[in-house]
Amino acid sequence: MTSAGSSTPRTRGRRGDRPMVPKAEFESYYGRPVIKAPSWAATDIAGYFFLGGLAGAGSVFAAGAHLTGRPRTATALKVSSLAAVSLSAAALVHDLGRPGRFANMLRVLKPTSPMSVGSWLLSAYGPAAGVAAASAVTGKAPRIGALGTGAAALVGPAVASYTGVLAADTAVPAWHGVHRELPYLFVASATAAAAGMALVTGPTGENRPARCAAGLAALADTAVAAAAERRLGMVAETWREGRPGTLLRTARVLTVSGAVGAAVLGRHRGAAIASGLALLAGSACTRFGVFAAGIASAEDPKYTVVPQRETKRT
Amino acid sequence: MSEERVGFFTDTSVCIGCKACEVACKEWNAIPEDGLELTGMSYDNTRALGASTWRHVAFVEQPRPDGRTRLPLADGQQAAEEPAPDGGEVRWLMSSDVCKHCTHAACLDVCPTGSLFRTEFGTVVVQQDICNGCGYCVPACPYGVIEQRPADGRAFKCTLCYDRLGTGLEPACAKACPTESIQFGPLEELRERAALRVDELHRAGVTDARLYGHDPDNGVGGDGAFFLLLDEPEVYGLPPDPVVTTRDLPAMWRHAGAAAVSLLGGIALTFVLAGRERR
Ligand code: SF4
Ligand code: SF4
Question: Which residues of the sequence carry a binding annotation for [4Fe-4S] cluster 1 (chain B) (predicted)?
């Protein structure tokens, strides 16, 4: 007979707790989770976070390139933003199971629902990104194209940052605990992805802003991620251990080395492409890592119970 | 709300774990079965609340921790202090769990379609024809109640028998409960009754008896379904201090706004820093 309520559940793949916080006494119901993890597929939703960020930040980047006379980079990023937002919408619809169900998203506009706000943001952003890309590729209607470019650049940042709220507005400890930091982490990661895309697709003669942005993004990404882990206290284990830990560490390495590579060697085509790919991959790893950390924190009742016992005591 | 707010008071001190509530709920609401495996962990083969389990009877069967409540309780008295043959003592705690019908319901707040709504009875119900299966309500619920049905994708949970309330009937689980462990009625009345019951148990020496979810000032603004427990909430699989996450939403939107502005500003800055390309 197993000892029931007081059993300390086994935690999967853990290599010994780090003694950063004293081992907390905690009880649970046969080690079963207290909250329910989202049933979202990682490829759909973490993929959606990554693509939304790439699209949103990419539109801002495209507008900058457009304004500063870097036409090839501008066109490349307008196209990549349109592709990314289309793919991200496809991921969202795929997660709903039946495409017809997406229509229900636009029944109401609810500020208390980040998913509702996001659906409306996407329906404003998508067409703007589409107009910007179509005009850039065909060379037709430059005025309307410029308008689309501007609109996409204004809505794009919201598309990149709201996903931080989408994840944080849940009872998932590893997400809600960093509801202040997550939007900043997501825009830093989005900037890294857009800079990466600019390095891969833009000519080296136009890539100074991308090399600059890569450096800024890597700095911000590293600093915010460290702040987030500090804020999480014992829940930060879920950001450090197991698969999420591996993903997040890989993300740091890729982002920083991509940024350094871009800064130092970005004038060479090959190096620019390699650095850009590293930045894109780093951004994707950040999203998948944060997503996986959330799932891990929802599945282990410890991360729900122990922090709540602390707040209850104070 | 046109009607008086109603809810459940579940007094676990009289629960005998018969599962009449689970069965009555399944029958009345025509909920599909959700697998017939044995868990091997206890007599509880239902495991948890879910899309197809709207009442769940928890069975805590364990060596009694020192000084903690024994079960069963007879007339508020604790069971005899007979030690088990091995010197220890085994205790059973039973509790029928359900959706809390929170005053501030995260599931309702985050639902993007408006499918989750508050009824005239102050309860929280999903409109199945509107739910689009986005699954956002699932991780939003701080109690782990609502869930998507795998093949269907849409979210389901306790409706507090909305259809029965409309015709003046009490919910099926409360009707079926033979010990009146599940009590249904106007929330105010239930809270008074619960306070009396806790006092009674305390006087009888059951010092671990406590109410859970009764306080309108708790993290979810009070539960429409609250409990009398005989040990810490987490022993029963309940969160000790749940908070509706939308409480922090204004701060989240502010940070998202600031993050969006910093993205715009940051990229603008890089274009300034980069200046013209060197040829
Ligand atoms: S317990 Fe969960 S599902 Fe029930 S009303 Fe509260 S938030 Fe919604
Ligand atoms: S799964 Fe259904 S009920 Fe839940 S948030 Fe989405 S639309 Fe609303």
Answer: 15, 18, 21, 177
In this predicted model, what pLDDT tens digit does every residue of B7-50 receive, in sequence order?
Answer: 999 999 999 999 999 999 999 999 998 878 888 888 898 999 99
The two tokens of residue A221 are: 């990404």
Q: Domain holding B16: CATH number?
A: 3.30.70.20
Q: Is the per-residue pLDDT at B84 higher than 80?
A: no
Q: pTM for this one?
A: 0.92
Residues B177 and B206 in one domain: yes
How many Cβ pairs within 8 Å bridge chains A and B?
268
Q: Which among B58, B114, B268 is the nearest to A110, CB-wise?
A: B114
* CA A59–ligand 2 middle distance (angstroms): 31
Across the range A54-82, mean pLDDT stands at 97
Q: How far is B178 from chain A (nearest CA, A)?
A: 25
Q: Are residue B141 and residue B260 in the same domain, yes or no?
A: no
Peptide bond into A99 cis (omega under 30): no
B66: Cβ contacts below 8 Å, ≥ 6 apart: none
Report the domain count for chain B: 2
Tally of residues, chain B: 279
Q: What residues contact A223, with CB distance under 8 A and at least 6 apart?
A: none
In this structure, the answer to whether residues B35 and B171 fall within a common structural domain is: yes
How high is the ipTM of this complex? 0.92
Record: contact B234-A206, CB cut-off 8 A: no
Asked if B191 and B250 sit in the same domain, the reply is: no
Q: Whole domain around residue B274: which residue ranges?
A: 246-278
The reported pLDDT for the residue numbered B77 is 59
Q: Residue B95 and residue B263: Cα distance in Å, rounded?
A: 50
- Nearest Cα of chain A lies from the Cα of B169 at a distance, in angstroms, of 31
Same domain, B122 and B250: no
